[in-house]
């Protein structure tokens, strides 16, 4: 027998049941192979951990009760945001200008710019505020400035007036400056209510800013329990990978907006995500038991994210905020030591501790919950071959993000063979899983690289944003009638689209 925790079947079933279900969070574990053969050989399995709000707390947060939220809007006002994307009412002056993207544009008056669309959507926030909510706004280009702070439900007119008078801050896109100022603004709220940045840009860092500085800023915000929801406007200009590196450490999601008429719905959905948060500042810590090992691990719902390679006996990462209608799934590549034929039953592979806050119930107190992760050993060969196909498929879809990271690393160091190898791995996964849209996107990436030894931003964004979309949206059914709430239904449709 290896040095791994083990215990009898009856006792562990009762303990697990009591540990997993509680009044705030539910955490469930499942393996792709639920029962392993006790032949003494080491076993390689995929673990799925699902985290969701309990039915009890979802019932508590009905229409009459909600968790206040602090939201900071961060709006890009660089030159490119003034480019016209809707010619309605536009009158050309006869003069032209060549933009940073090499496109020649007519100068004139009228029409609808990217900034017009962003501001129109931002003003809708005023109509969505509830009592106790606060909204701040930062805008940035060469540098950042505060447009307004700590406005609420009684300040609707002032919010709209301030947004109408937003001004140009220069030619460059200093994303780090905008996000850091937003973080400093949100830090003034000392309660445990959700703190969320809704961040919008149509480009990538320029001037003194860099993608490395952006990634560092994302980690800094995560340390302060501030979630960043990123929205990138335009397939040809935005650096989707850069925006993802900002949002991922915070537990946030990145959305690529391809068309102007998508912006309002995406913006509203992200704002409502902050408003449907019921549990805040959630972090997960896993301790792997002696003899077991965890390698790569991923987030698979609400989006696919590669979280890293574990090289020790413990894993710690930030989940962020828990929404009322959302489940969150994480996948772990795990090795479990073999068990001898004289043992049948459960062994404990790891223990997981969640720490979190529910401000409306416990104030600023931090609550912790510990859960064990058991797996069954059996002498029944037929049972040991039964596989949970959903876990296997969803793990492989999340695994694409690891190969995408390796493709990016190879590209950055000029390893052409490495780039081609990793793209081919991704294409093979999508081909095996019969995902024609994603397969086509990475085939286009491979063709682009083979012909040019480079990958255009449009091709890159198309592929990486498609691979980030989770097959399992994780939307929870409404508790009252078994149907999705209006918001959940809209979010599910948007994610599938």
Topology diagram in text:
Layout: E1 6-7, H1 9-20, E2 25-31, E3 35-37, E4 43-53, H2 55-60, E5 70-76, E6 84-86, E7 91-98, E8 104-109, E9 112-113, H3 114-123, H4 125-128, E10 134-140, E11 144-151, H5 156-164, H6 175-186, E12 195-201, H7 211-223, E13 226-233, H8 240-247, E14 254-257, H9 263-275, E15 277-288, E16 293-301, E17 305-309, E18 314-323, E19 328-336, E20 345-357, H10 359-362, E21 367-378, H11 381-384, H12 389-412, H13 416-432, H14 436-452, H15 457-468, H16 486-496
Parallel strand pairs: 3-21, 5-10, 5-12, 12-13, 13-14
Antiparallel strand pairs: 1-20, 2-4, 4-19, 6-9, 7-8, 10-11, 15-18, 15-20, 16-17, 16-19, 20-21
Give an overview of the whole structure.
The chain is α+β, with helices and mostly antiparallel strands and 497 residues long. The chain folds into three domains: 6-61 and 280-306 and 324-348 and 370-387, Sandwich (Immunoglobulin-like), CATH 2.60.40; 70-87 and 113-275, 3-Layer(aba) Sandwich (Rossmann fold); 390-468, no CATH class. It is built from 16 helices and 21 strands. It has helices at residues 9-20, 55-60, 114-123, 125-128, 156-164, 175-186, 211-223, 240-247, 263-275, 359-362, 381-384, 389-412, 416-432, 436-452, 457-468, 486-496; strands at residues 6-7, 25-31, 35-37, 43-53, 70-76, 84-86, 91-98, 104-109, 112-113, 134-140, 144-151, 195-201, 226-233, 254-257, 277-288, 293-301, 305-309, 314-323, 328-336, 345-357, 367-378. A hairpin with a 3-residue loop joins β16 (293-301) and β17 (305-309). The longest helix is centred in the last third of the chain and has 24 residues, at 389-412. The chain is globular and about 85 Å long. The relative contact order is 0.15. Residues 1-21 and 481-497 have low confidence and may be disordered.
